[in-house]
Amino acid sequence: MQRRMLLKALGFAVPVAAIVGRLSAASSGKKQTVRIVEFDASGVRTGVVEVEKIEKPDADWRKQLSSEQ
């Protein structure tokens, strides 16, 4: 019975911690970054780069991208 309670608590705590972490990073003015795995033309992994996260409303993306994209 205790194991079930622990698993339920963890199942709730992990998503909440992730949300709180995102909110605190956003409110601190610190720029958020994402990691992107790069591959060469033959599909071999060449490395990981960290770049600044870009957030735009859907309308802005639609202006920038073609209808196919």
Structure described in brief:
By secondary structure, the chain is α+β, with helices and mostly antiparallel strands. The protein has helices at residues 2-27, 58-64, and strands at residues 33-39, 45-52.
The level of helicity is 40-55%
Please state the overall shape, judged from the principal axes of the Cα atoms.
extended
Total domains: 1
Specify Rg, calculated over alpha carbons: 19 Å
| Series of secondary-structure elements, N-terminal to C-terminal | HEEH
> What structural class should be given to the helix and strand makeup?
alpha+beta
Could you give a short account of the major beta sheet? 2 strands, antiparallel
Q: Biggest sheet, strands in spatial order? A: 1-2
Unreliable runs, pLDDT <50, ≥5 residues?
none
SS elements, strand count: 2
Cα distance spanning the termini: 50 Å
| Number of helices, where a helix is a run of at least 4 consecutive DSSP H or I residues | 2
What do the pLDDT scores average to?
Answer: 76
| Fraction of residues in β-strands | 15-25%
Task: Characterise the protein shown here.
This protein is of the alpha+beta class and 69 residues long. It has one domain (2-64). It has helices at residues 2-27, 58-64, and strands at residues 33-39, 45-52. Strands 1-2 form a two-stranded antiparallel ribbon. Strand 1 and strand 2 form a beta hairpin. The chain starts with a helix and ends in a 5-residue tail after the last helix.
What topology emerges from the helices and strands here?
Elements: H1 2-27, E1 33-39, E2 45-52, H2 58-64
Antiparallel strand pairs: 1-2
